[in-house]
Amino acid sequence: SGGHRDKGRGSASLALGAQLCANASHALLYAPDPGRLFGRIPMRIAVLMQMRFDGRLGFPGGFVDPQDGSLEAGLNRELLEELGEGAAAFSVGPAEYRSSHATANPPPRVVAHFYAKQLTLDQILALEAGAPRAKDHGLEVLGLVRVPLYTLRDGVGGLPAFLENSFIGAARDQLMEALQGLGLLEVGQLPPARH
């Protein structure tokens, strides 16, 4: 996807390069899930993504405005707009920073900052219940989806089939890195990489 990843320190300065690029911040929100599909397939972890207005899958978040003051403040504002009042129960901070990815083709050049935040299952359920009442629901966001973190017996259903969807920007790579990097799935559980 022709970008640059930086796994440096947690929070970048908004002032840095503010004239040269736009900043966007997105978050992978997840929680342990003891549920079982059909009573036998462990769910293990609930991971939220969303169907975007353009028909692609992505993570909640969006563009950070200079008046937000920080990448995290902009991200938390966007989470409230896209997910509703359930997002007021937590905030994403510098400790949850994972990486940054710059698009290769200006204009405008966008630097996407990626975060991952562990929530409780009750917080995930509150987000799912409240999202249809969020300001951006039905506009920028068409709905929340959970990532199926299992593979069915046919070897295709579940995560392998989910990964065949269309993702925005680096979202697919960010998902795969976070699943492995956070220990949500082990290497042997991950589908083979696409070429």
Automatic annotation (TrEMBL):
Listed GO biological process terms: mRNA catabolic process; NAD-cap decapping; nucleotide metabolic process; positive regulation of cell cycle process; sno(s)RNA catabolic process
Domain Nudix hydrolase: 20-177
Signal peptide positions on this chain: none
Keywords: Cytoplasm, Hydrolase, Magnesium, Manganese, Metal-binding, Nucleotide metabolism, Nucleotide-binding, Nucleus, RNA-binding
Presence of keyword RNA-binding: yes
Main localization category: cytoplasm
PANTHER family: NUDIX T16 FAMILY MEMBER, U8 SNORNA-DECAPPING ENZYME
Protein known as: U8 snoRNA-decapping enzyme
